[in-house]
Here is the input.
Amino acid sequence: MTAPLQTRVLPAGAEAVEQAVRVLAAGGLVAFPTETVYGLGADATDGRAVARLYEAKGRPPFNPLIAHVVDRKAAQALASFDADAARLAETFWPGPLTLVLPRSAGCAVAALATAGLDSIAVRVPGHALARDILAAFGKPVVAPSANRSGHVSPTTAAHVAADLGGRIDLIIDGGAAPLGVESTIIACLGAPMLLRPGGLPRSAIEDALGRKLADAAPARADNAPRAPGQLATHYAPRTPLRLDAVRVAPGEALLAFGPTPPAGAEDAKRTLNLSPRGDLVEAAANLFSHLRALDAAGASAIAVMPIPHDGLGEAINDRLARAAARR
Ligand code: TXA
Ligand code: MG
Here is the structure.
């Protein structure tokens, strides 16, 4: 765990926007209001910043995050829009709608932020302060709800401070988030599908599309968002994973961690090190991109060195175990 941070709280305004941009550019974490709930923002293109964000939320399972951008044009640099997606963006952005879309080839968002998936969740928020920050920063900002993992989403700066004080750099107090529920999430990866009910009602979306939405899963009586992570399938490499490997067999690729290579490492088909100096934040930032690269090496298996279970190690081991079990 990293040492406690001094969390500053600033009232909404030009000074707050300037400080937010500074924090984001330095790879730090800033909580700000959106029209739905308060988000915890990090530079979406900076894998280390994204890793810190997961760590700050606590017991991080590396759920894919929503990339927030200032307008449709910026969203189009990240993802591809079919006709339905274009219609929804046109009708409801800026606003409480998140679209899950195919990730585009030139997408600059870190692989950790999308949990290694080929899809990406994108949202153009309507809140003036959020928009000012996004416009001034000029890059996509990932922003999960600014609560500790397992807690409810925060709708005031005080909620954020109670959950994340000492764990993030800056909180901008812009008053209560007007909607108080998260954005509605629609996947446009085929027939449009409702992944999470939220601030934009289903009927409005169905009216705009001129047809019914498919449901990702049976609706719940309490209409609450499903637990994060249940929404997205997990990234799984095609090459089998061999965990806690202490030696590398012929034909295997090696996913290393730390300064000391295991026996047989020199014969590995390809080696990538999550963090040569054994830093778990760096390892998390590299996890999905390294897995993808090793998956393309044509190896019989990917030998994965043991990774400690403390801090972000818990989530790294969780994702590796899922990836290994998926076959
Ligand atoms: O209103 C909101 O959407 C707020 C504000 C801050 O913008 N953000 C928010 O983020 O609720 P978060 O991380 O708490 O929820 C994002 C949800 C997660 O449940 C995640 O699984 C899902 O979006 N998600 C992200 N990328 C996905 C993808 N590629 N496929 C399916 N689901 C995805
Ligand atoms: Mg959340």
Remarks:
- The chain has two domains: 8-215, 241-324.
